UniProtKB/TrEMBL annotation:
It comes from Chitinophaga caseinilytica. It holds the Pfam family MS_channel_3rd. Belongs to the MscS (TC 1.A.23) family. Residues 1-21 form the signal peptide. It comes from the Bacteria. This is Mechanosensitive ion channel family protein. It is found in: Cell membrane. Residues 415-495 form the Mechanosensitive ion channel MscS C-terminal domain. The chain crosses the membrane at residues 134-155, 196-219, 239-260, 292-312, 324-351. It is a multi-pass membrane protein. SUPFAM superfamilies: Mechanosensitive channel protein MscS (YggB), C-terminal domain, Sm-like ribonucleoproteins. InterPro entries: LSM_dom_sf (IPR010920), MS_channel_C (IPR049278), MscS_archaea/bacteria_type (IPR045275), MscS_beta-dom_sf (IPR023408), MscS_channel_2nd (IPR006685), MscS_channel_C_sf (IPR011066).
Length: 516
């Protein structure tokens, strides 16, 4: 304070001496808060001395009114034309050689004196008003905190009302098909937990947004407030900017997806028409319709993915490409057998060796086909055993279909018996045909027939062949046929044995059961 008075006194004496030397010049005071800082006697040709003094005083007042004002931020710059007092890059006052000419000081010294006077005056006033400013800052901060507390209280009150309303409601269970995923009580609990999470998220957002407002009140925490806002605004700006930039790619993906979807619908419609027999294509069987539709659908989806891939976010990055290659390698290594079964399933579909519901034999397994897909075929045996056979095994082995010709031409069931040479073959033929005629499930037309398949050392091989339209009853028909052959031969007194068997008995009694 004393130093400011000393510089002021020196400056006043100097300006008075200059005024005495040049009585023709006018002077004007530079005022700040009603006090005179110094006098000006020169001005540029386009404004007067008083206008220059008022302009400089206004700049000093505006500078001081800033909430983060610091006197130390006033700096002095020098060049060949003038000396300038700056605050945060803004010119407060320009001292020229004309100002120095009306004083006994050179221009740099005069400029330093002006800078010292401005710093001292503003610094003293700031020290006198700092407590008042701190109290004002504290009041503003308390108001923000009070508003935040009030807002949180209102949100809590609203949350309690909404929670009570949802807690009293009855909710339907969430059902998928015949399975209840969530009961009514669990749905209610899920809603209440969702409300609690929303409340917590809103509280965190409000508090986070209130902190920059609170920090911006105090000059020494203003930078922290800007940083907090930057943490939120910069990611949001990047997100919205990226979304806006991605809109053309998104529209392209949407067009590709819609095109693929309607092509698949068209293929599905045509497959349904072919399966029902409405649409007939030469050489294309109706049972090929659904498998062909499934294959075309997979191929179309693969084409869609290939077309969409370049438009996916991050598809050009090395990380995305590396993950794609790694997943492709895992799939190719781990699914070699599955791919082999899929290829076999496709081949089997178009080979048509059997259909759903037909009686077939694969290896040692005989039964009805109950399921056929790209990977496996499932067969249900006569013992109600479900056997799963990979398609690759079926393609690489032998498959017997008992049902494919049963309805049109009839399936031939055959039984072999061996009779000695002492029995006339017409008699044996008659007995075998009579046994076939008694068996339910065997057809009278086409007529059964007997073949003599071999003349062995001790007996003749007779083979009875009969037609049936019921391959699914093979086991029962064979059992009935065997029973009828035994009954018919026993009633006729004909033994079913070979001379090799006769050599091991005394021959006194025939091997025919006695009638009861």
């Amino acid at each position: 304070m004393h130093r400011w008075k000393f510089y002021g006194l020196v400056l006043c004496l100097l300006t008075a001496m200059a005024a005495g030397a040049q009585d023709s010049l006018l002077s004007a005071p530079v005022l700040f808060r009603g006090d005179t800082l110094f006098l000006l006697q020169t001005a540029p040709h386009n404004i007067s001395v008083s206008e220059r003094a008022a302009l400089i005083g206004g700049r000093i007042s505006s500078m001081y009114a800033q909430h983060d004002f610091r006197p130390d931020s006033l700096i002095l710059t020098e060049d060949s034309l003038a000396s300038r007092i700056l605050y945060k890059g803004q010119v407060v006052m320009t001292i020229t050689s004309a100002d120095a000419a009306v004083s006994d000081l050179d221009r740099p010294t005069l400029a330093r004196n002006y800078l010292t006077l401005i710093r001292e005056k503003t610094g003293d006033l700031q020290s006198f008003s700092s407590m008042k400013q701190v109290l004002l800052f504290a009041a503003e901060a308390l108001a923000v905190i009070a508003g935040l507390v009030l807002l949180i209280w209102l949100l809590n009150k609203l949350y309690r009302r909404v929670k009570l309303r949802y807690a009293r409601r009855s909710y339907k269970p969430f059902v998928a098909g015949s399975y209840t995923l969530l009961s009514g009580e669990r749905v209610r609990g899920l809603w209440l937990k969702t409300l609690a999470i929303i409340r917590l998220a809103v509280f965190l957002i409000i508090i986070y947004l209130a902190l920059p407002v609170l920090f911006s009140i105090f000059p020494w925490t203003e930078k922290l407030a800007d940083r907090l806002l930057t943490y939120v605004l910069d990611p949001l700006k990047d997100i919205f900017r990226n979304i806006a930039a991605y809109i053309p790619n998104l529209l392209t993906i949407l067009v590709i997806w819609l095109f693929t979807r309607y092509i698949i619908k068209l293929v599905k419609f045509m497959a349904g028409e072919i399966e029902r027999g409405v649409l007939q294509i030469r050489g294309f069987y109706p049972d090929w319709a659904q498998p062909t539709y499934n294959i075309v659908k997979v191929l179309l989806y693969l084409f869609m993915f290939v077309a969409i891939y370049p438009y996916l976010p991050g598809s050009g990055s090395r990380v995305f490409q590396g993950v794609s290659v790694f997943l492709g390698l895992l799939i190719s290594i781990g699914s070699s057998s599955a791919i082999g079964n899929m290829v076999a399933g496709i081949v089997i579909t178009y080979m048509r060796p059997f259909r759903i519901g037909e009686r077939i034999r694969v290896g040692d397994v005989t039964g009805d086909v109950i399921e056929k897909n790209l990977l496996v075929t499932r067969i249900r045996t006569i013992k109600n055993e479900d056997v799963t056979i990979p398609n690759a095994v079926i393609l690489g082995g032998q498959t017997i279909n008992y049902s494919s010709c049963a309805q049109q031409q009839g399936l031939i069931l055959h039984v072999e018996v061996t009779i000695g040479y002492d029995s006339p073959w017409p008699h044996i033929h008659k007995l075998l045909l009579a046994s076939a005629a008694k068996t339910e499930g065997l057809l009278s037309e086409p007529k059964p027939f007997v073949l003599q398949t071999a003349l062995s050392d001790y007996y003749v091989n007779y083979q009875l062949n009969a037609y049936t339209h019921e391959p699914e009853r093979m086991a029962v028909i064979y059992s009935e046929l065997y029973k009828n052959i035994l009954d018919t031969f026993h009633e006729a007194g004909q033994e079913i044995m070979s001379p090799a068997y006769q050599a091991y008995r005394d021959g006194n009694s025939p091997a025919i059961p006695k009638k009861e």
